[in-house]
Amino acid sequence: MKHKSLSKVLKRLACVLAALVIALAVAVFALWHNELATLSSLKKLSDRDEAHRDGAVYQLNVSGGYYFDDFLAQGGASTDSELISFITQSITKGIIPMNIKTSTIACSAFTADTQSGDRVFGRNYDFSATNTAIVYTNPGKGRHASYSTIDLSFLGLDKDKDVESLGQKILTLAAPYVPLDGVNDAGVACGIFMSYQGEGKGTPTDTQTDRPDLTSTTLLRLILDYADSVEDAVALAQQYDLHDSASSCFHYMVADSTGRSAVLEWVGADADHDADGSQRQLNVLWNDTDALSDSSDWQVVTNFIKTPGYYDGTTVEMKGLDRYEHLAAALRQTNGVVADKNAAMDLLASVGRRTWNNDDSNSNTVHSVVYDLTDKSVLWVGNEHYGEDGYTFEFQLGA
């Protein structure tokens, strides 16, 4: 009898434990089903190659809305620490700390038309060797689907190691908050570029009004998620105070399928008097009013401020002027027309940093991407392996 009684107790205990395990599994799934789906989607597209200074390339498909509506509803964030706190509380419920950081980057971008009439946005991301991820988001609820590119080191992941452990993978859940460039299913593309304003490598923009707040990369996410056009993107930017990240400063270029594009810059009086980021004002250089572009058929941006008169009478270096002049000359010669997306990629390759004469720390072009704003497609090349199998990837929105 004692044996039978003990057996019943053990069976009941096993049932209770099984019920607890099931309840815990249900609770975990209820809380983190989108995050679990996102983590399961992470895959490596190409390996690291130290001989060529390549980082690894990953693909990540983000499930759910990544709490961005909640982020905006709380008024955004005015510092990286505020953003990190929001992401940690929202994504991991405060259990696992997250991280966000940016660094000094030097990049090039242009808009052009193809011979078939498609509008394209080409962009090089120049930095030291680092791992990257191509990120797909489709949050729904009136927000656009998009493809974007992120630098995984911005999430606190080691630039010199693959993303392998669960802890490392969990950090990628913050990927939607740190896009460098991207395109949405309305045919709107945007990129972020260092602008080197103020002292040293740049004094961060830190506008102070009663508007809600955004950091550098969350402004780009706002545009990708909500903008139907360049005009929408500009209107969105005007509604927020911008707070640049990690002791750096940035400007943006945004374009859409109509041929409209604009460079968004937050500037002070001039290059010699722009060390107070709180005093800067947003200036918009449309492609038909950009004094440095001879034609509205194309627009180029690198790493210097394009606002007229900004460098007058100063000795401040215009960062990236050599790359700018090279791209502008090529587009000027063809009236802003490239044969196709591959020709646009060839133009990006012509200023790739492994072969370009440069003497700064950003000696690699980490990725080159051509966004077709007309058919909403993506042509993406990692680490200057132009035309090479295994390094060239294509994606399609709305397919």
Automatic annotation (TrEMBL):
User: Does the entry feature the keyword Chaperone, yes or no?
Assistant: no
* Species of origin: Faecalibacterium longum
The UniProt keywords, alphabetically, are: Hydrolase
The Choloylglycine hydrolase/NAAA C-terminal domain is annotated at 107-266
Looking up Pfam families in the UniProt record yields:
CBAH
User: Does Membrane count among this protein's keywords?
Assistant: no
Q: Which InterPro entries does the record cross-reference, listed alphabetically? A: CBAH/NAAA_C, Ntn_hydrolases_N, Peptidase_C59
The family this protein is said to belong to: Belongs to the peptidase C59 family.
Q: Which Gene3D superfamilies match?
A: Penicillin V Acylase, Chain A
Query: What protein does this entry describe?
Result: C45 family peptidase
Tree of life domain: Bacteria
